[in-house]
# Entry
Amino acid sequence: MSTAIIEVTGLTFDYPGFRALDNVTLSMAPGTVTALVGPNGAGKTTLLRCIAALETPLSGSVRVAGLDVYESPREVHRLMGYLSDSFGLYSELTVAQGLEYAARSQGLASAAVAQAVQDTARRMGLADKLGKAASTLSRGQRQRLAIGQAIIHSPQVLLLDEPASGLDPEARSSLAHVFKALQAQGMSLLVSSHILAELDEYSTHMLALDRGRVLEHRALSPGAHVVSASGAPVERLLRLEFAQGAQAAAFWLASQPGVRVSRAESHGVEIGFTGDAQAQAALVATCVMAGHALSLIAPVTENLQQSYLKSLQAGRDANKTKEVSL
Ligand code: ATP
# Structure
């Protein structure tokens, strides 16, 4: 039995005459925040809509918390919050009424509604706006109300399509805090956005799509997440520096288990390392015992923008090679 919170297998989705998702397979671990990135038209919205059981794919399956979303959409909606990129609010309803409406449509027991409205308004920084009509809120406040409506039933999974679009830097930063707090409470988030710097603040994973295919899906912060959702160890990038030249050390490192030398310079070596903290400690100890004057070991950090652009380029290079060999 899979422990993934979201499991997508072989998902293919066609609009009339156009394939928007092509055999997408992915697995998201519980408690993670995944940045869903890709160029315009990559298929991000379509993927989110398929996971939310709002579209019927040509083939493939989607499971959320073990439930098939197409067989049990109602049960899945109880576990899930979804914010569409073109969300609408009832402008005449007050914040309290909008939240109450969402709570009741999610099937919350009447006795629990008032408390859920208060708690959600506080969570979203709208406690002092409960009596205000949605039409009188600023864009950032409307966005927070829409997210509040999506999370009022305390879902396990939250899907957000461009939640920060049109927000000023301060509102984006406060939204980032909200997402971090939701993750800390155990929620899993899948967030699509083009504002990579903002996603970088709170994402644990990156899922890059291009032309309906998964380019890359991996943990972002080296060291923080060393095991993938499938249980396979994730490679981390490390930089090692040596006091007396790195050439011999690079040669030695290349022969060590779990090590892939990605770059060697005069005094430093970058490696991809597949192993846990204990394996890393053993590597350091044997390196020193082998006579290499190791002066520093540190994770190589890469921001989301760099990871994304690299993955996009690699995907396009692979496509070109395929076209040439056809
Ligand atoms: P963006 O970053 O611009 O929001 P996206 O990655 O979310 O893009 P989608 O909205 O999922 O992309 O669209 C994927 C592809 O499917 C695009 O090429 C789009 O033109 C096409 N598409 C989307 N909706 C429809 C539709 N209703 N009918 C036909 N084609 C569609």
